[in-house]
Structure formats: structure tokens, C-alpha cells
Design a protein that fits this description.
The chain contains 9 helices and 20 strands. It has 357 residues and is α+β, with helices and mostly antiparallel strands. It folds into 2 domains: 125 residues, Creatinase/prolidase N-terminal domain (Creatine Amidinohydrolase, Chain A, domain 1); 224 residues, Creatine Amidinohydrolase (Alpha-Beta Complex), CATH 3.90.230.10. The strands form 6 sheets. The protein has a 6-stranded mixed sheet, sandwiched between helices. Helix 4 crosses helix 5 and helix 6 crosses helix 7. The N and C termini lie far apart (50 Å). It binds manganese (II) ion. Manganese (II) ion binds next to loops. The site of manganese (II) ion (MN) has 5 residues, from loops.
Amino acid sequence: MCIEKIIDFLKDINLDAVLVSSIYNCRYISGFTGDTSYLYISSKRQVLLTDSRYTTWAKSETKNFDVYEINAENPYSDVIAAFLSEDNAASIGFENRQMLYSDVMKFMDKAPNVEFIELDDKLDEFRQIKTADEISKIKCAQEIGDAAFTHILKFLKEGQTEEEIALEIEMYMRKNGASKLSFETIVASGPNSAMPHAAPGNRKIRKGDFVTMDYGCIFDGYCSDMTRTVFIGAPNKRQCEIYDIVLRAQNAALSEICEGKICSEIDKTARDIIADAGFGEYFGHGLGHSLGLFIHEEPRLSPKYNKELKENMVVTVEPGIYIPDFGGVRIEDLVVVTKNGCNNLTSSNKEKIIVEK
Ligand SMILES: [Mn+2]
């Protein structure tokens, strides 16, 4: 991103400098894709600080930053303190939600006359509206996820463990262009599917199970995320009922998404459908979240998130019903917000899928 935006931001909130520490913000602002660096930005200098393991790499990827190599004699805190002093800076903003308390104490200790201002997640806000280039990377990541779903439907059969299924999904994504996973793959079968974020275990899938698979991958730095729930053998009446309600709630929410819509209202649409059907107490989490360089970003589609959606934000829409000792269903798509609606990046089938092997 252009440095002028950050300099303007500093002026707006009356700060002399900013210390960027989140690996996602460092990457977004500087272009450096390594995971160990700080950015020091003032109107007088823009410096990427890293250690000798990353110096050459950082120089090859950053255009607008001077790369400064720290070492044991010149640690981050000393170098930053020197920059603040040379810049006559009275204040510096820092990412208090991203830094270790012990590191913050070190920085403050070395620059006792400088005011350290908590920025919370203000720098993350620059990443909310995606560029065309970012959307195309998210789309590629999601295409790999959808292809993995097609693959796993051919692979799935009774007797496989959740771990085996998760590994197959992960291998498929890695072999087809993903650099890594965007989060730990969830494969939850039978009663385990009542736990929204269950870890795959050694339970073998069998007739009568729901199997919920929630996974995503990273392509060129950008995340994807999707969930499908399938049936092993013919579903019973209650399973069908729950599945149909979740799908109806998801479709209703999807049809409401567009620029200008309030996030909590979209959540409410899905939540009301589930509650009216009598399952309100079994849908505890928010309806969705944004993603990008990181898997969980703002905006969120949740009951208390009252901001408006804007064009080219991306959000997941993932209602669920989870009944202890019975099982659960979640269906998740990933969409790009447009002026008049949304563009669904997830192409996998959402009709009831019955695995008969
Ligand atoms: Mn998700």
C-alpha cells in the first residue's frame, strides 16, 4: 500500500510515528512476506527492521522502506529509540493487541520521554476493503478449497477416521497450489459434529453420521474458508430438518448482502430463521467474518457488529445448528460484497450430499 496513506493517518490522529508489528500489517504496508520484522514509519523515515536471516529477502520485496538489520548489540528497542530521538518524536502508536507485554516494556524503557499510544486494531482497517489483486488471490485459494471438496466426495467412505479425511483434504490442497492451510482443518463426524470447532480425531465415520468439514488454504498469502456437512448413508428425518433450516438461513443471509447493509442485520436474518424453527439455543457463534492475509478479520457478521458492509469487502456466511449428543450442521460460503449484492466465490454443491460407500 502507499506510504502516504499511513502518513496521513498519523497526521489525522496526531502521532509522530508508528511501530507496526503484526506480520499481516507489515506485509500489507511494506510488501515483505517474511514473518519477522517491525516497520517504523514517520514523516521523516520509513524503515523495515529485521535480523540477518531476513535482510536480503526483505530488500528484494520492499520498495518504499529502508531495510535496517538489527543484531545483539543493536536490538530493536535501541534502534527505535534512536529513530524517535532523531525524529524529535513525542509520540508513537503501537499495536497493543499484537505485541508481547514484555516487548512493549522494553521499547518504553528505552524511550522514556515518548508517549506510547495504543492503536488497538486501527491499522487492520486499511485491509478491510480488498483490491482486485487481493480478491483474485482469495478466489484462487477458494477454488483450491472447492476442488478439494470434489476430491473428498470421491474419497469418503465408511470406516475412515476424521484424521484420515483431514489429511486427504490437506494433501490435496497442498498438491494443487496451496502454500499452507489457512487454519487447522476441522473434520467432525457423528456426535463430534455438535462441536463447532472440533479437532479431527480417530473416530471412524459410519452410517447415520453427519460429517462436517471446515477448511481453507493460503494462496499467495491469501486465505480461503469453506464448510460443508455431508451425510453418511441416508439421513433421518431430524437430520434433514436441521440441514434444511441451516441452508435456508444461509441462503436468506446471502440474499441480503450488499454494500450499505448493516452487518448485525444480516446475522439477525439467519439467526431469526434458526430461532423461529426452534433451534435458537443451538447456534452460538457469529454468522461470519472477513478474511484476507489472516483467516479472521473484520468486518464480522455478528449480533453486535453494527457497521456497514462496503463494496469489495469479503465475508463468510456460516450458520450452524449444533445439538449435543446428536450432531451438527454448518454450511459456509465465502463472498465478495458488491454494490447490489454479492459474488459467491464458493462453488461447491449445498444440496444434501449422501455418501453411499
Ligand atoms: Mn469461517
